[in-house]
Amino acid sequence: MKQNSLRIVKNTIFLYIRMACMMLVALYTSRVILQSLGVQDYGIYQTVGGIVGLLSFVNSILSSGTSRFLTFEFGKGITERLKATFSTLLSVHIGISIVFVILAEIVGLWLIDNKLNIPVEQLLIAKIVFQFTIVTGFLSITQVPYTAVIIAHENMKIYAYMGLLEVFLKLGIAMAIDCFAETRLLIYAALLCGAQVSILSFYRIYCIRNYQESKFCRHLFDGQILREVGSFSVWSTFAGISVALLQYGTMLLLNMFFSPALVAARALNDQVSNAVNQFVQNFRTAANPQIVKRFAVGDYDGSRHLLLVSTRLSYCLMLMVAIPVIFLASPLLHLWLVQVPEYLVAFVQWTMVQNLFSVFDACFYTAIYAKGRLRENALLAPAIDVVIILAVYVLFLQGYSPMVICYAFVAMAFLEGLVEKPFILCRYVGYSLKEIWYVVLRCMWVTILSVPLPYLVWREVDTFQPIGFTFVCLAAVVSVFIAGSFVGMTGYERLEVWGLLQNKLNKKKNNRRQL
């Protein structure tokens, strides 16, 4: 247990170093790209990429099953079964990628010609850019089994290194396109596609050289494994469609009812949201394999305990970032972009509220995912998502502000995280409502106790000045840390964390003495 906990801590550290560097470079890269391409071209690229993202729901049919089954089989330790699982799943993903290309060429080009608000003089370039995004999408789909192998082995070091390489390549591309006077959008799409091809190729070569199960063998294709994964994943089809509608369908809706500039604002908001979500995602990426592996070997109590503790820690991590971002959205965005698109500040503030509720949705889903009981979630979550997206569409038809997207998404995150997921956990996975609401209520108390201090500081200082900005950030971090330590954690958990840190420090001291 202690060894596994230390592995989680070690992997989390690697992922956080990766995240910090990636976030800083990625945000700066977005600023350079926005200045080089302009708001209109940037909005066009995001719209075209949204078509590919919307169509990539085909990939989600088996992607969650791929990660779950490879991690599950790795936990059991049966090598031959693991090899057969990988080869079977890679074959299926190759088939899915072919379907994806066909759908993209038919549906995507029709949308560009008939539905999207793209200037006539930019139409040909938009279609060529679309082809580059299709190539990237094709390779990304076939990459899923290789990424799942790395996560199953909990090799977060290589995951961190490649993430850093990826963002620095994108930064180089952003600076390079400024050297071209014309067709910058086309050059940007081509270079970005080349960078993605290089990164994905490295992942595959690394897996093939280091993990025996990742060597593809056609004769290891197992129909029984395919049926098991298909049975597990067929329900996630609905979830995949709804997620694609939410993530990329909103981009298309904004383009249909508003200008490409508003699409650019929403895309920039999503980048901020993704950067913030990495604070939680990195910790969950390190903890989730242990939750699944413990469930696979029958340690149900250990799996449940780790999930509930990691949920509280994940919420505190998100709150530690969300509070300063909400208070400092305007100075942050002006520092980042200089010229801030309309609606972007409000988009970011409301998305932080959405992210707090989404922590429960994502963490509780891990227990459903480990058990393999996806049917109920696949029916309830997409139903909520479809209602939300239809409501937004109707409100746009009635002439409402684009802000309705934010309000609708907060409502969706609340329903899925605090109503739907707890219901499924209690009804079908074996959790008790008492232990779930114990986690939720502790997180709510942490929020209530954490907000007053940064709010009071925010009222008294000029947040556009470095000193005022820093004081608000420090007040938020200190408040969440104290409230999270004494309200978000039990006394036993504080002792457990302290013991892990002491063991780590003692181990380093002993190693130094030996040297």
TrEMBL record:
Cellular component, GO annotation: plasma membrane
Segments crossing the lipid bilayer: 12-30, 42-63, 84-112, 124-146, 158-177, 183-205, 225-246, 313-337, 378-396, 402-419, 439-458, 464-487
Topology term for the membrane: Multi-pass membrane protein
Keywords, sorted A to Z: Cell membrane, Membrane, Transmembrane, Transmembrane helix
Domain of life: Bacteria
Coiled coil ranges: none
Subcellular location: Cell membrane
Species, as recorded: Selenomonas montiformis
Name of this chain's protein: Polysaccharide biosynthesis protein
Upper taxonomic lineage: Bacteria, Bacillati, Bacillota, Negativicutes, Selenomonadales
Primary location: membrane
